[in-house]
Amino acid sequence: MNNFDNRKFVITFLILLIGSVFIFRLAYMQLIDDQWKLRAAEISENKLVTYPARGIVYDRNDKILIDNQVFYNLLVIPRETEGVDSVEFAKLLNIPIEDYTTRMNKARKYSKRKSSIFEKQISPKDYTQIGPELYKYPGFIEEERTLRTYPKPIGAQMLGYMNEVNKSDIQKDGYYKSGDYIGRSGIEKEYESVLRGKRGVRYILQNAIGVFTGSFENGKFDTVAIQGKNIQLGIDAELQAYGERLMQNKIGCIVAIEPSSGEILSLVTSPTYDPNLLVGRNLGNNYMDLYKDSLKPLFNRASMSTYPPGSTFKLMMALIGLQEGVVTSNSSFPCTKSLVGCHNHPTAQTISDGVKMSCNPYFYHLTKKIIQQNKSPNGYIDAGIGLDIWQDYVQSFGMGKTLPTDLNGVSRGLIPGKSYYDRIYGEHRWMFSTIFSISIGQGEVLVNPIEMANLAAIMANRGYYYPPHFIKNIENDTIASIFQKKHKTKVDAENFSYVVDGMYRVVNEAGGTARRARLDSIAICGKTGTAQNPHGEDHSIFIAFAPKDDPKIAISVYIENAGFGGTWAAPIASLMIEKYLTNAISPSSIKREKRILEANLILGK
Amino acid sequence: MRRKYAILGDVDWVLIGLYLILVSLGLSNIYAAVYDVEHPMIFSLSTEYGKQFMWIGISLFFGLSILLLDGSFIKKNAYWVYGFTMLLLLLVLFTSPINGARSWFGIGSVGIQPSEFAKIGISLALAKYIAEMGSQFKEFKSKFRIGLILGIPSILVLLQPDAGTFIIFVSFVLVLYREGLSGNIILFGIVAVIVAVITLIVADNTFFIPFTKIKVTGKFGIFLFITLLGLVSIFMVKNYVIPRNRKSLYRVIIGGFLISIVFVNFVEVGYTNILQSHQKERIDLLLGKIVDPDGKGYNINRSKAAIGSGGFMGNGFMQAKLANANQRHVPMQSTDFIFCTWSEERGFLGASLLIGLYIGLMMKIITVAERQRSRFTRIYAYCVLGIFFFHMLINIGMAIGLAPVIGIPLPFFSYGGSSMMSFTVLLFTLIKLDAERKNVLQ
């Protein structure tokens, strides 16, 4: 009839093509790709979720630092609440009836079929009254969850707190679901993935009228809840508590480290707060109160602040001078007060004397020899070369570079090099006389209290350190290898003996700057620091380790605006050392302890 | 010359058989999809399956009545049917809108959707016109009139607005193709779809023209590509084609270039400015530009989850977890998304069987069409084929995420009186016309 009869084949082909595309697509969706089956189970919400208990955190002596407590959430399925006496129910929960209505509307808006939270975090005590009555109110279901609790109110900032996940947490990590809790700071944040465990899900089948008919796909998609791992920290809870007591009414921090391992024994920051405040229903309000507090208790001074190190810095100057060969252990320098101010003391005959008496001009001369080594005839160029050598040494002590630690938000100190001063003064426009303050730990130099404690640990070890860290053990797991790596300084061990000798004399010899730290039974080696600062009275600083031979503890104490280092920081360090090593305070130290506990050094702040 | 014959004598029993199978499977499926515990009887009129049962009865009554008519009577009155359905399409525009569209005549508690019946009118009119115009497809006058027959209902349904039915009307292009419209039209259509999809994908993007700092929207990228393609083609023609063929090829290239530019612009402007936001969303969802399983992508995500969870054997009759009457996780699961309940309960086996049944029905219609001596019957058969094909293509394609969400029924399966009646009448008219094929001498 016409020439287009063949076109029926094109049309037939087209139909068969679409038919096969559909069948292939169906085969893929129904037979191969499991995601839709899982999605179906998710949608029908026929799943039972089991929440794992979060890992417990222990101190080095197996005392519990962070524990779990049970509480109850009340969930509601709006569709099933027909006939509930809302007035009675509101009375049972002790909430106004208007609240009942608004919460129900919110739940309905979310979903009529799915459960959503009606009342959060009911304590077990309150729940004993609600639980038995619940059967009268269809559509309301209990859900058991756990919250953190702190048996001792210590270590708030380093242990951190938890709160509910927000949108960006959920986006970042698909594990979290709305209503979950996440570690926000400190240990809780750092070890979130270890502590949280993994929730388990069981998908179940229901038929059209909601009757349970078995497990979905024979449990193919079910997962078992995995409990969070317990962890042990190097923290000594008693020492921590004692440190926090000593620091009452003072602003500052204490960091104590075990030199042989780098484990942090205590990390005290003051003022502090009871970590139990940031748990449960009042978290938000309490957090705001702490946030607004002018003394900033949320701020972890021990890890997040940087301070001028003052005279404690002289220890490194002495070591570098010896290592570079620009001085010997018997070098003597006059106390030239016209160069830099000093107190009255006999002339330092040796490097040990210099440390003992903390003579400022002595270290001016000494550091000048490090910086100006006459490697170039031009004094400006020479200072640049010398300063870079100096910076290299100081950084080998773990300063000015971020220490590899398991504490989030650690700030690092500032150890200036040539390029730093070139930026300030211009290249070849400065020499030692411009920057001499660094020799006594003032000027541009800034260090972090953990770095300072680490310096004490290096002195104790005579030349090396392990990165300061909290973690000691993880249940069924190993701790990160970076914490077991020994870092050597660029100064040889034999050079340490002269400086350590000086540190011993600081505490134990007449004319030393920290006689107040002396103990009869324990050989403490220390170094005071008194840092001028623009905020008022000098900062009182002390770093120490003990015993002199076979050291067990290295410590740094920093008290803001408290005056001379030997007056406040030194006795606090001494008490901490005594407490840690003898587990008690001897009668001879009681007076010292009383004086510290009664001192209020934040008056007027 | 006319032969007397028994009413059901030459009726094609395969078509009737396929029809009855599809209708009964469809009814059982609606029963499962909207099962009401309080009204378990299938003819309980307060339920959708009860009503559907009634609609099937009425449809069968109409279908059998058509078998009693005379084939020539149908052909003679083709334009009248067309005119009547167009009048209904016009009048429906004066009703008050339901869900934002003026598509329904309410008669008591039931609604009638004239756009469903318009398909019958158009099919008959188109068949009659083309059958009688001889083979002068090239004349402008005949092209214009065919354009008119298709254009009037298209405009009327777009005014409702009802984009779904409009897309069904596009299926008549298939008929025109079979009857001799240039074959390039199909090729042209495929290329146009590809270009349109690419345009839509890049429409919202911006990029820098290479080596410059000028930021432009995605369509300029396509322009750049088309221009390069044009230049390369001209280069090829210049070097590899004998001179006397060059001129016409240049014309094709330049024409193609201009049309492409206009077309891309049209698609882009249409997408960004003319489409309503929900339509734009549906396209974005299909192209994967939006992923929002619980919000904008709710329908399609639930639909796919229901189908995918069917597995090989399915969950069994009345055992759907998602597309069941109680949970109703799938929206519109008795009408637009009826394929979900079926696929979830009957699994891959049932779903392929259903597609097989539709393919079988369509293959049978092609066979029936090709054995006609009457051009009218053949063209009409292809119209029916195109309508069924597009309904299946879009409805199932939508449910399995291969087509955008467009609410049109699945023939004989979706709940709805108008569509059930119109599909039945369409098919039985074909059966009737086919039964009389031996009477036609042409």
TrEMBL record, chain A:
It is a single-pass membrane protein. Pfam families: PBP_dimer, Transpeptidase. Residues 252-574 form the Penicillin-binding protein transpeptidase domain. It is found in: Cell membrane; Membrane. Residues 50-211 form the Penicillin-binding protein dimerisation domain. InterPro entries: Beta-lactam/transpept (IPR050515), Beta-lactam/transpept-like (IPR012338), PBP_dimer (IPR005311), PBP_dimer_sf (IPR036138), PCN-bd_Tpept (IPR001460), Penicillin-binding_protein_2 (IPR017790). Keywords: Carboxypeptidase, Cell inner membrane, Cell membrane, Cell shape, Cell wall biogenesis/degradation, Hydrolase, Membrane, Peptidoglycan synthesis, Protease, Transmembrane, Transmembrane helix. SUPFAM superfamilies: beta-lactamase/transpeptidase-like (SSF56601), Penicillin binding protein dimerisation domain (SSF56519). GO terms for molecular function: penicillin binding; peptidoglycan L,D-transpeptidase activity; serine-type D-Ala-D-Ala carboxypeptidase activity. The chain crosses the membrane at residues 9-28. GO terms for biological process: cell wall organization; peptidoglycan biosynthetic process; proteolysis; regulation of cell shape. GO terms for cellular component: plasma membrane. It comes from the Bacteria. PANTHER family: PEPTIDOGLYCAN D,D-TRANSPEPTIDASE, PEPTIDOGLYCAN D,D-TRANSPEPTIDASE MRDA. NCBIfam families: pbp2_mrdA. This is Penicillin-binding protein 2. It comes from Putridiphycobacter roseus. The gene is mrdA.
TrEMBL record, chain B:
One of its GO terms (cellular component) is cell division site. The keyword Transmembrane applies. GO terms for biological process: cell division; regulation of cell shape. One of its GO terms (molecular function) is lipid-linked peptidoglycan transporter activity. It is a multi-pass membrane protein. The chain crosses the membrane at residues 12-33, 53-72, 79-98, 146-177, 184-208, 220-237, 249-267, 347-367, 379-406, 412-431. It is found in: Membrane. Keywords: Cell shape, Membrane, Transmembrane, Transmembrane helix. InterPro entries: Cell_cycle_FtsW-rel_CS, FtsW/RodA. Pfam families: FTSW_RODA_SPOVE. This is Cell wall polymerase. It comes from Putridiphycobacter roseus.
